[in-house]
Every structure is written in structure tokens, then in C-alpha cells.
Amino acid sequence: MLGLVHHCESHVKTVACLPLLLLLLLLSLAAPLRAAPSVGEAISALLVEEKLDGAVWATLEGEGAAGVSHAGRRTPMRADSRVHVGSIAKTVLAAGVLRLVSQGRLDLDTPVAPLLPALDFDNPWQAHDPVRVRHLLDHTAGLDDARLWHIFSGKADPDAPLAAAFPAGRGVLRVRTRPGARTSYSNMSYTLLGMVIEATVGQRYERYLDRALLAPLGMRDSTFTFVSQARDPRLAMGHFEGGVAHAAMPSYLRPAGQFTTTAGDMVRFARFLMGDGTLAGQSFIAPALLRRMGQGAGQEAARAGLQLGYGLGLRTVDRHGAVARCHGGNGIGFRAMLCLFPVPRQAFFIAINTDSETADYQRFDALLTRALVPAVASPVPPPAPVPRFESGPWLGFYLPAPNRFDTMRLVDSAFGFVRLHGNGGNLVFTPFQRAAIELVHEGGGLFRPRGKLLASHALLTSSDGRRIVTNGTQSYAQVPLPCLVLLWSSLAAGALGLVTIALLAGVRVARRRFAVADPLALPLAGMLALLLPLPFFYAQSLVRLGDLTVASALLAVVTALLPVAMAVGLARSLRRKASMDAAASLAVLQACVVLATGGLLPLQLWR
């Protein structure tokens, strides 16, 4: 190439050399581009590595697809294939609420109870802190996330009133923390927002949002109404591991997770969210509201100075070397992610039609983030000198406050704890059975993990004087270690009691010394009865796990009879002075009492 350049320099006036030089220049520039795999090629490779079926994605520059839309039929995924996006529906629905607020038809501080008088909120703070619209949008209403039957049910009807998700007398709307104080992710909150929309506009939220939100935004391939693969051949099939296909199913909590769209439509939506809130020169959503999406307001974490958190349908995250406003989603056979990068005004959407428990979906997010905003992450600033943090009183064990699923509060108390301990001048945040996070003090009780751009955790004292550690979307309250040890000991003793009963009874059976009158006869029968529901559960679909079926009814009966069997066995053992039998029965009985106190005995999956 250099020889040709010198040749042309000696014949500057020879016009014929110019095209040749341009061609060589283009070829030299194109060579490294061909060497680097495209985003599409990289996503295709990741799908194979993670054993996933297909994906659609889009950025502000274009769209793409890879893999298959139906594993059984090997139908190729197309860029305009429709997909389900799970909880990303919350972001779109939140925009619909903000549209009503911008029109003056609704206010973020409007109390919800007067709008929905048929519902009974159990709110101890009702007099001064009612649940407001903004609390539902920010996940700060203090409500449970969902009940099992909300998610796993074959009885949900896509045309049923939304109030069917909140039956009276079931304690579904119990407010567990002061509204506005603390973030706790709640699908029920966004279902209530669907009801708020309906109460405001006087029609079904699906019909209203399709007409008043999606149509003006140009999202012609999107809808809030229920869409199944049988109804729409463009809708990709959902899958689980191994390419097992599963069609869409209706949900009791449909405003929180029912949305059908395309990658192109989601990029149109992302572009609007990063704009000034106008459409065709007319104000559509107030820009101040759009800027507030992804920002906490009024929560303990936000007041403590954390920038990470949830607000108005988006979550601010610090991942893969960039700060973004994102929302993920997963549903039956789908995983999806929407991320906005206000600086340098980039966005991506990706949906994968496989819901796998083993795949690492963060690899796709990292790939798209680094492809779009390779320079967005300024170098992590060196820690500035800050006053030494007196961590002593904060060290110890913490429990979720509140936990996400109220019916699992006992399980989370036993196994959802985190430990906070020191490491030199830093703190180490260690969730049970998960990787530890070393935190560097930034000042003012804010802590940042090494390699991150923003503080991720804050230590604060709640209004009732409890020590709290929060990451902006989940808070933990300090708990005395003896309380945890007592709970662990109780559950361990119960498990040991079950093993002891099985061993003692087994030895007696082997020696032919076991009779109906044996002190362990009923306890053993109670234990064996726990196996009776298993074949019925095996025969029924997983999606009916939350329904009242033969399997779930039988499970409730045998778990209710277990403590009765142990109590009878204990009485017999005491009469016969069989100390080992009595100790084993008592150990199981006390664990049953603990489980009953935590709402897990009898085990009623449909409640």
C-alpha cells in the first residue's frame, strides 16, 4: 500500500490515483470491523452458550433477532416478532398514570382508599399516612408482593374484574410498613394502579391505555390486553429449560405483568421517556415526571442520600460500568430487560423467550450496555478522605424488613438473613448463601462496593429506633443473634425429631417390636402421611400450584394432622416413660407450633 501512495505522490495531477487511494483506505478501515463480532452474532452465541431458544432486541439505532420463536417447530425469531415482557408492563402502565397526572385527572398524592371504596386496606397508619398513588408507583405502600395463587392458578380469567385479586377476609391488603417509608417490590401495588386507572377513566384499563397511551406513542404492535400464541401467530412461544414450550396464561395480577409488544415498539417508548414529554409539539407527560422515573422520593434510603432506587416505574442501577434506569421482567417462558442511559442518550430492550433457572441473563445486559455506552462510565473516583465510621453498633445480623412475600416471612427469617461485619475500615455485607459484598465508606453512612460508580448501601436509624441497612430497593433491620439462634434451634430440633422417630420406629419394625399401640405409631403415620399428596402434585400442572385441588387439599389435611399425631405420641410416651420417644415427639411438636405461628401450618397453598 505504501508503494502505491508514493507512486501517487509523484503523479499528483493524475486523477486516476484518487479512486484507488479511497478504495485502499476503506478496505483498511473495514478490516478491523470485520474482525469484531457484531452484537447480533454475540447474542446468537450467548443463546447457544446459555441454552436459550430465541431473542429479539433493539437499540435507538436498530433492531435484531436470533434463535427460534418456537423450539418445537424451529420457527426463526424475527425482529418484528411479538413477545411478552412480564414486569416491564409496570413501566408502561406507570407512564399511563403519569399521563393522567399531567392532564390533571389524577394526583400523585391522592389517597387510594377513597378511589377504591370496595377494598379494605389494613393500614395501621391510615390516619396520617394513607396509601397514596405515588406509593403504589414507587413500591412504598408496604404491601405484600403476591400470594401463590396470584401467580400459579389455572382459574384466572383475562376478563375478570381486577378486584378478584383482593378477596375480602384474606388479609391480602395488610400494610406492613408505614406508607412512603420503605421500598418493597409489590405486584399487588401495580394491580391496584390498574384499578385506580379504571376508577378515574370509567373503563377497563387495557382499553384505555391502548387508546390513550400506546396509540399516540406509535406503539401499534403493543397491547395491554391478553394475547395468546393461539390467537396471534406473531407472538413467540414461551419456553422453560430444555426447550419445553408453554403458552401464555392469564393472571390475577395482569396490570403488573401482562403486556405484549415488539422490540421496535419498546425502543419508541424508550425514546419518548428520554425526551421532553411532548408528542407532535404538544405536552403529553410533564417532563418533571419523566425525570423522576427511577428516582426515589421520600423513602428512608433516598433521604439518606442513596441515588439507587425505584421511582415511578423505573429503577436506577449501577451495572456493567454504567448507571442506567431499567426495569426487568419475566413471565411464563420469557425474560426481558429495558434500560435507558440518559447520558449519552442510549437505550436497549431485549426479550428472550426462555425462562431458565440456570442461565445468566446478565451477560446479555452487559453485552448491550458495553456496545452502546462504552465510555459512559467515568473512572471510579478514588475514595476521598472521610470521617471514620463507627461501625461497632451496626455489626451483626439483619432480616428483611419487610420481606417480599408475606406468607414466606418465617422462611425468610430463618434463611433470608444477612450479616454485616467489619474488614479493616470497610464493611462486608454477606447475604446467606450468596457472595459477600465489600463496602467502602463514602461518608454520611453511605457505602459503595469497589468498582462501582455510586453508593449502593446506606445505614440509617428508622423512626422507631431500629438500625436499618438498605440498598434502595430492599431494607434489612438489625435483629439480636439469640433470636435467630432460637429459631434455627427450633427448626433443627424439629428436623432431628423427625429423623429420630423414623430411626426408632425402623429399628422396632426390623425387630418386629412395633405395634399399633406403640408411642411412635401415630407420629410415624403422621410423617408418612406427608407423602400422600406427592403423586397428586406430580399429576397436576405446575401452574395450578396455587389452586384448591385434590393435591393441595390433601396437603393441608396431612400438615394439620401432623401436630395432632405428635401430641398423641407425646402423651403415650410420657405414660410409658419412654424418654427418647417423648423427646422426639416433643421436638417435632414445638417446631409445628413455630410453623403454625409463621402461617405455614396447616399449609394452605390457595390462601
From TrEMBL:
One Pfam entry name: Beta-lactamase
Database matches in Gene3D superfamilies: DD-peptidase/beta-lactamase superfamily
Residue ranges of domain Beta-lactamase-related in the record: 47-361
Entry keyword set: Hydrolase, Membrane, Transmembrane, Transmembrane helix
Membrane-crossing segments per the record: 485-507, 519-538, 550-571, 583-606
Highest taxon, organism lineage: Bacteria
GO molecular function terms attached to this record: hydrolase activity
Keyword Metal-binding: no
Name of the protein: Serine hydrolase
Native source species: Pseudoduganella buxea
The organism's taxonomic lineage, starting at the top: Bacteria, Pseudomonadati, Pseudomonadota, Betaproteobacteria, Burkholderiales
